[in-house]
Design brief:
With 151 residues, this protein is mainly α. It has six helices and two strands, in the order ααααββαα. It is globular, with a radius of gyration of 18 Å.
Length: 151
Amino acid sequence: MNNTIKPQGCTNLKLRQLNRMVTRHYDRYVAESGLKNTQYALLSHVVRLGPIRPSDLARRMQMDASTLTRNMQSLVAQGWLTIGAGGDARSRLVEATEAGHAKQAEGQRAWKEAQLALNERLGVERVATLHELLDACIECLDDDSDDPVGN
């Protein structure tokens, strides 16, 4: 490794700043479908993976189960998701309704517009490089056994 290269500033702060800016960008587009980014992501996962147990959905989304439950409530209230009986008396399955499938498709069109606009603004090459770098960092950090704090 080249010893002359030294990161300047806080990586966490820089990532949070970028995340907020990108989230605002996507929010402007996805909001046209009546969804928040978090709702669109959740609905998309259920459409793709469902019917699915909430615990499996939380794991796939790398989300705390209580946060998932809280986020699902508005989608259930809107009639876009149902939570029904699972394989036994203690389990539940989350599934997208017909209206949920339609809402997800509407959100997906808005999301695609947001992605194309971001690609245009940042440049496709920069976005592809960013994706490669993020994927590599995620892979490096994905092993919780190296967590010195024990989280």
